[in-house]
Sequence to fold (179 residues):
Amino acid sequence: MNSDKKSEVDVLQTPIVLVGMMGSGKSALGKALSVALGCPLYDCDDLIVEEQGMPITQIFSNDGEKAFRMLEQQKMQDLLGRGGCVISTGGGAVTVTEIMKDIKVRATSVWLRCDVETILARLGDDDGRPLLKCDNPRKKLEELLSARESLYAQADIHVDNMSDDIQDVVNIIIQELRT
Fold:
């Protein structure tokens, strides 16, 4: 191995945080990446759902997006303190300034870039996406991507994830993490 490259031990000194739009593959890739690196995976949305005892759509409905973002910020602060791991964020986590600041200081971030067509195909009829409960989900996705793209672009590593081959994308991420 090239001495300029980092080993898995070096790569995992801080959390690896996956960011990107809903449907960009953060959960699926997070699972595969954590297996490849031999470290824990924490899915922020799943943990919030488990702790709150209700789906995100219900949290949005009962308490609003702002309350959900506060829960997300608290959970991310906790997760970022857990050392070497993979963290899958919710698509809107980047909209919370404090979350982005914490990620920049305490982790290595990976933006999983994905186009709207691929996202729509992956989401299908998933009704668990509160921000897409509208008349025109495509338009809403385009608006969200446009609003968030500059935030996602602050990630340390950018990886296109429009492929169905998860292992190829995991290998690219690991290669980028080692450089």
Q: What stands out?
A: The two ends are 12 Å apart (CA to CA).
